[in-house]
Design a protein that fits this description.
The chain is an alpha/beta fold. The chain contains 17 helices and 13 strands. The protein has a six-stranded parallel sheet with strand order 5-2-1-6-7-8, with helices on both faces. It has a three-stranded antiparallel sheet with strand order 9-10-11, with helices on one face. A two-stranded antiparallel ribbon has the order 3-4. Strand 6, helix 4 and strand 7 form a beta-alpha-beta unit. Helix 7 crosses helix 8. The longest helix is centred in the middle third of the chain and has 24 residues. The protein is elongated, with a radius of gyration of 25 Å.
Length: 398
């Protein structure tokens, strides 16, 4: 839908001193929403993820460019400047930019920017309206505050790896991380929420504040119902493979030609599922009438369902279950996911013109607005691409 209304954060300036993933994920969200995000990078090297390849973006000649795919995933719609803030002159430039910014996002270790005079207290003195978002491994307080935090490490410490993967008593059981850096991503999302809330609060108070966002905190919060399972039972949940801890059947089943997911969310869906697979007696068994009963008697029910599912083809099962409203689906790889007609209809892959002459492939923002939509203004910037532009337009330098 086209609209003449500017994007939601048009006119908001963000000074982005973050790198890797959690901080840049937050600032990419803000950039997608229309903020002018100025990404500050080290001269000569820049964001660490620029070198996290292969794979790299292809140029018009089909050959690798210097732009790593990892970096492309979280830096669109930003402008890049290179400043050495370890020098007095560089630190002065950052202070000048902070004085003209609404938001600053950084993910240095606790106290890491104080020696340059770029900590919250120092910058609050030059801009009391500044919202200063600090993303760290463990937060600004506590015995681990000064330690660095990495997604993989936090997945282990925070509990996710204890509930991810096959059951310990089955082949392949044992600690397993998620297939993407979920701690960094969820931290970037929580940081985005916090920044937007602080912007709203500033309308009332006229003042900025520091936001203390920790990977460890966000990771633990993300465990949601698994935390509640522990709180209410006193027992730490264990790995359940592809099965749900609290809903049955809600898992992967093998078919004669592959695997598929069945996700019955309530008792009526379960009854429809049993009828569709030709086993209405399993819906009438007193042990399985309710979800609570099915969870309790999981070990009696699932083997029977598994044997039935093995007798049919995946796509045949999906057609039968979809016809009666039972949630189900295939297990696609990423290529198949982007090839899905729903992904194509929603234009989940976008191409943005890139300075190297080709286009940068990016994943579309899932944030959809009817009146002030996300705009794909810039490809992920090259190192220092906008230094002169920003210093001229924002600071009035020659």
């Amino acid at each position: 839908m086209s609209s003449n209304r500017p994007p939601p954060l048009d006119g908001i300036r963000v000074l982005d001193l973050s790198r890797i993933l959690a901080g840049p994920w937050c600032t990419q969200n803000l950039a997608d929403l229309g903020a002018d995000v100025i990404k500050v990078e080290r001269p000569g090297a820049g964001d660490d993820t620029r070198g996290w390849g292969p794979p790299y973006m292809k140029g018009p000649d089909g050959k690798d460019t210097s732009e790593a795919a990892y970096y492309l995933s979280c830096n669109r719609n930003k402008r890049s400047i290179t400043v050495d803030y370890a020098t007095p002159e560089g630190a002065d430039l950052i202070r000048e930019l902070a004085a003209k910014s609404d938001i600053l996002v950084e993910n240095f270790k606790v106290g890491g920017l104080k020696k340059y005079g770029l900590d919250y207290e120092s910058l609050r003195a030059v801009n009391p309206r500044l919202i200063y978002c600090s993303v760290t491994g463990f937060g600004q307080t506590g015995p681990f505050a000064e330690r660095p935090g990495y997604d993989f490490m936090i997945q282990g410490m925070g509990g996710l790896m204890s509930i991810t993967g096959e059951r310990d008593d089955l082949p392949g059981g044992g600690p397993q991380k998620a297939g993407v850096a979920v701690t960094d991503i969820i931290t970037g999302m929580y940081a985005t929420v916090a920044v937007l809330a602080a912007l709203q609060e500033r309308h009332r108070s006229g003042l900025g504040q520091q936001l203390d966002i920790a990977l460890f905190d966000c990771h633990v919060a993300m465990l949601a119902n698994q935390n509640s399972n522990f709180f209410t039972s006193g027992k730490a949940p264990r790995r359940a493979g592809n099965a749900h801890q609290n809903v049955v059947p809600y898992q992967v089943f093998a078919t004669s030609d592959g695997h598929m997911i069945v996700a019955t969310g309530n008792d009526s869906q379960y009854r429809a599922y049993c009828k569709a697979i030709g086993a209405p007696e399993l819906a009438e068994d007193p042990r399985f009438l309710t979800n609570s009963g099915r969870v309790t008697h999981r070990d009696a029910l699932i083997p029977q369902l598994a044997e039935i599912m093995k007798t049919g083809r995946r796509d045949d099962w999906i057609a039968k279950l979809e016809a009666v409203g039972v949630p189900c689906g295939p297990i696609n790889d990423i290529s198949q996911a982007f090839g899905h007609p729903q992904a194509q209809a929603r234009e989940l892959r976008r191409e943005i013109p890139h300075p190297l002459g080709g286009t940068a492939p990016v994943t579309a923002s899932p944030l959809r607005f009817s009146g002030s939509p996300v705009q794909y203004r810039y490809a992920p910037p090259m190192l220092g691409q906008h230094t002169e532009e920003v210093l001229r337009d924002v600071l009035g330098r020659s």
